[in-house]
Amino acid sequence: MEEVRSLKVTNELGMHARAAGKIVELANRHGTTLFLKKDGREIDGSSILSILSLACPKGAEIEARAVGKGAKKFMDELEKLFKDKFGEMATGQHGPRRRLLKGFSVSPGIVIGKAHHLAQSKAQVFHRRLLDEEEVESEINRFKRAVEMAKEQIRKFKSAIPEPVEGYAFVLDTHSMILNDSMLFDSTMQMIRKEKINAGWALEKSVRNIHQLFREVEDDYIGKRMDDVDSVSERVLQNLEGVEPDSLADLNEEVIVVAHTLSPCDVAEINVDYVHGILTDVGGRTSHMAIMSEALEIPVIVGLERASDVILEGDILIVDGNTGEVIVNPDPDTILSFGEEIKRYANYKSAIDRVRHLPAETLDGHKITIKANIEFIAEAKAALESGAEGIGLYRTEYLYLIRNDFPDEQSLFEDYSQIAKMVAPHPITIRTLDIASDNMISDKEATKEDNPALGLRSIRFCLKERKVFKTQLRAILRASIYGNFKLMFPMISGLEQFLEAKRILRSVMRSLDREGIEYHKEMPVGILIEIPSAVSIADILAKHADFFSIGTNDLIQYALAIDRDNEHVASLYEPFHPAVLKMVHQVIESGKKEGIDVSLCGELAGDPLAILILISLGLEEFSMNIGSIPLIKKMIRMLPLRKVRQGFKDILELPTSKKVEDFVLKKANELLPDIFEEDVFRYRTPGTA
Ligand code: PEP
Ligand code: MG
């Protein structure tokens, strides 16, 4: 059955994105195949982009052709939609609410689609209610039941977790652990009992107390773990109220999900066929939700602050997960230009994906080694899939931060042996504990410091808390037989400190020998060079270390006296500062002289401009965030190394960061025009230079 009609666009704004969205939605609802024709050109009426490409202003005449069983009925409704001006009111009254929102991109990619709100119980406000004496026990039981239900729900999510995020099942275990945690569970029960208040109010109060406690923790990573506490308590609150939260598993159309926040359980339910993007008001780059959704390869922007208020159900959105921008109800021209951008990005992605498993070998045959920085065991798989030739930095803090006591040797051993097996035969550089003493939740008051970045942290903490240090070293040594470990001590500022750390390592080795426990006796032991004093004496340290890895994140912070997490001085954090480049160079030269390996594992390694400088300075091994690996590999494979070194030979003479950046940008355009003309910076990982 076919039905053809002439339709006139009568609304003020013409056939804009929202109108086009309504046409597509109507055709989908009727199961009708629709074609729209204007000026002799016929397009597919099921594509918003194609409809917009007709560029129909007010007054335009088009021919609509519907094919399918209910074509006539569909056409009647379509005609009505045109006559009703697509629901648009007179000028000034409505007009598409066009706006631009800016957040933090945590997973790249660009999509255009329709907004769908994930209804959450966040709007729910619990009022304080005083209980009668006889109500107290039943309220406690009600709370316990809500907690049990939450545990059961989490168990279910875990058993149905999709394959790409399987490795993150441990996040859900963490949620179960939080439910059992006395700071949440016992304190809520105590409050119900002592203050005789309702469970919802008591739980919210406990969460507020934990927030208060965490607020004093300066570490961004721990701060973000509050997301986990929030999402767990939210689930319990929902159970207390008998609220059935919206589930992403129920979706049956393609959408961009908009929510105040998403929990890892929500992500565990995502069907990637329907969820094409995620936007949240809150959340940071290191939230579990963010890390998991990156594994699903869905563009995600967090920290949009008011997205869930500003965006309405059904709004058309452009989500640019490369820049962190969201355009709400864009005009047709913007949609068309993003259509082009989507194609460009897809080309870029397929070009870099093709090389990700090829060696990072320069045009003139020099082999460069590219490894990944990871924080969780689950990231190891993603790292190898992105083409990493090993793990150049395994930050081992996670197991310490999710609990309020120190992990025992066995749980550390299990984690380390598992990752060793996963990554073997590739190497893993395992870094010993790098936290500040006030990160440990217990006994916070006793350890509070005015200036934690310069305080008792990292190796200094380990050398003081010998038992904690030895437990970790034992676990690492025991796991070393399952893979290819290198051991790295962070924040070494002087020789004596490094020798002391090695003495402790040897004493742990001796005790394992006595117990007849096997370990890799020749495991290389190196230094994370990230303090200027270590740079100055790199020639001395090199005589005692098996390798150096340069940690530019902290090295820049300490060299320029710029707090790396302080947004007020963020513009002064200059990775291309001549002092930084000279320091990197000095470390490379000192390492070379003693014949030890020197690599670099700061975020700088994943920056396409920085990598040119670093290679020119003589580095041949890098460890970087997983997302940067394919692009950096592609660049390296196109680089004539000799020409780079020749062209950059005077880089250390340049007097300012700006001059360095201008110089590199110019050279980059000459050396790799295909890559840099494509404006790859739009795609580079946030947080780098
Ligand atoms: C560094 O400081 O450069 C580094 C690699 O370690 P982190 O970012 O964990 O401090
Ligand atoms: Mg560091």
Structure description:
The chain is α/β, with parallel strands linked by helices. It folds into four domains: 2-87, HPr-like (Histidine-containing Protein, Chain: A, 2-Layer Sandwich); 99-120 and 247-330, Phosphohistidine domain (Glucose Oxidase, domain 1, 3-Layer(bba) Sandwich); 133-241, Enzyme I, Chain A, domain 2, CATH 1.10.274; 365-442 and 450-683, Phosphoenolpyruvate-binding domains (TIM Barrel, Alpha-Beta Barrel), CATH 3.20.20. Helix content is 45%, strand content 15%. The strands form three sheets. The protein has an eight-stranded mixed beta sheet. The longest helix has 24 residues, at 136-159. The chain is globular and about 85 Å long. Residues 91-95 and 682-689 have low confidence and may be disordered. Phosphoenolpyruvate is lined by residues 393, 395, 434, 530, 551-554, 601-602.
In the CATH scheme, what's the topology name of the largest domain?
A: TIM Barrel
- Biggest sheet features: 8 strands, mixed
Task: Order the strands across the largest sheet as they lie in space.
Answer: 5-12-11-7-8-9-10-6
Oligomer: single chain
Morphology call:
globular
Helix content: 40-55%
The CATH superfamily of the largest domain is known as Phosphoenolpyruvate-binding domains
Helical region count?
A: 28
Which CATH class of the largest domain?
Alpha Beta
CATH architecture of the largest domain: Alpha-Beta Barrel
Span from first to last CA? 59 Å
Number of strands: 20
Low-confidence stretches: 91-95, 682-689
Mean pLDDT: 86
Name the beta content range.
Answer: 5-15%
Class based on secondary structure composition and strand pairing: alpha/beta
Ligand names = phosphoenolpyruvate, magnesium ion
- Rg to the nearest angstrom? 28 Å
